[in-house]
């Protein structure tokens, strides 16, 4: 069975590369293993292809019909990092690539890296510059913005409102006592 697991982290999530160029996918293991498997899922062919297995000593085992010149695995500086290098990219390399380790008769997969190979990379959209205005622009610094926000912030007015309410409620018994005292005095004065 296959299952994705937090023991592997794979980067990047997406790669868009140009035909005949090369690319690499990084795989970081959370603990040491006997080696890393690499697979490709082809959406077009709806199949899962075994590409290459690399052990910690750098020995590689290739899948059937997999070119050794095209795919290679390089060990990173740490004992738990591997990178898959793919050269001479072609449209047939499109797919989602997974690094994987074997654990208790299961293959644990990384999160996957979607590779798209195109003849021409799309250009970033051109940004049009706004005409320069002759009026001076007033900038609000972060501290001023924070001060303004601070005045209206619920973190300020909610505790303030609660304290005012508590103060008013504590005045109610005092006001009632004063009212009763005034009434007693008034009654005394009028009895005499």
Automatic annotation (TrEMBL):
It comes from the Eukaryota. Residues 12-110 form the Ig-like domain. One of its GO terms (cellular component) is cell surface. The keyword Cytoplasm does not apply. It is found in: Membrane. One of its GO terms (biological process) is adaptive immune response. Keywords: Adaptive immunity, Disulfide bond, Glycoprotein, Immunity, Immunoglobulin domain, Membrane, Signal, Transmembrane, Transmembrane helix. GO terms for molecular function: coreceptor activity; MHC class I protein binding. The chain crosses the membrane at residues 156-178. It is a single-pass type I membrane protein. InterPro entries: CD8B (IPR042414), Ig-like_dom (IPR007110), Ig-like_dom_sf (IPR036179), Ig-like_fold (IPR013783), Ig_sub (IPR003599), Ig_V-set (IPR013106). This is CD8B protein.
């Amino acid at each position: 069975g296959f299952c994705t697991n937090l023991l592997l982290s794979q980067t990047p999530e997406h790669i868009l590369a140009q035909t005949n160029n090369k690319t690499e996918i990084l795989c970081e293991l959370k603990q040491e293993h006997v080696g890393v498997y690499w697979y490709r899922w082809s959406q077009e062919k709806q199949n899962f292809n075994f590409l290459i297995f690399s052990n910690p000593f750098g020995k590689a085992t290739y899948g059937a019909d997999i070119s050794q010149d095209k795919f290679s695995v390089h060990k990173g500086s740490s004992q738990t990092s591997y990178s898959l290098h793919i050269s001479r990219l072609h449209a047939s390399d499109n797919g989602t690539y997974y690094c994987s380790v074997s654990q208790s008769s299961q293959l644990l997969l990384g999160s996957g890296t979607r590779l798209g190979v195109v003849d021409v990379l799309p250009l970033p959209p051109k940004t049009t510059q706004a005409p320069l205005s002759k009026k001076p622009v007033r900038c609000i610094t972060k501290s001023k913005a924070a001060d303004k926000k601070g005045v209206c912030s619920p973190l300020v007015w909610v505790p303030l409102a609660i304290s005012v309410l508590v103060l008013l409620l504590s005045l109610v018994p005092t006001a009632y006592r004063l009212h009763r005292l005034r009434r007693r005095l008034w009654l005394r004065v009028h009895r005499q």
